[in-house]
Amino acid sequence: MSLRFRSTTIVALATFLFSAQTASAEDLTDRIAKLEAAATAAQSSADNAWVLICSALVLLMTVPGLALFYGGWFGKRM
Predict the structure, then answer these.
(1) How far apart are CA 38 and CA 6, in angstroms?
(2) How far is CA 60 from CA 19, 48, 57, 63, in A?
(3) What confidence tens digit (pLDDT) does each residue in 15-51 have?
(4) If we measure between CA atoms, which residue out of 48, 12, 18 comes closest to residue 4?
């Protein structure tokens, strides 16, 4: 890449990033309030419990699966 191309790319990227941060204070406060409400709703739902139970079941299946895999891999050859 040429130096001119790099500098042009950096200037364009910086312009894009800084132009996206021109939101008003009320808009940001409203967005933060909505985000906090969504986080509270997600924490109080049963979805998190279901994901934790599924993760525990997957972890419990991992041990016998690995034992069978490595047992067959290193087993006796007839």
Answers:
(1) 40
(2) 49, 18, 5, 6
(3) 666 655 555 778 888 888 888 888 777 666 777 888 8
(4) 12
The answer to whether the beta carbons of residues 42 and 48 sit under 8 Å apart is: yes
pTM, entire model = 0.39
Count CA atoms closer than 13 A to 64's CA, side-chain side: 4
Q: How many residues does the chain have?
A: 78
**DSSP secondary structure letter of residue 26:** H
For 35, what's the count of Cα atoms within 13 Å in the CB-facing half-sphere? 6
3-state SS string for 36-67: HHHHHHHHCCCHHHHHHHHHHHHHHHHHHHHH
- Classify 72 as helix, strand or coil: helix
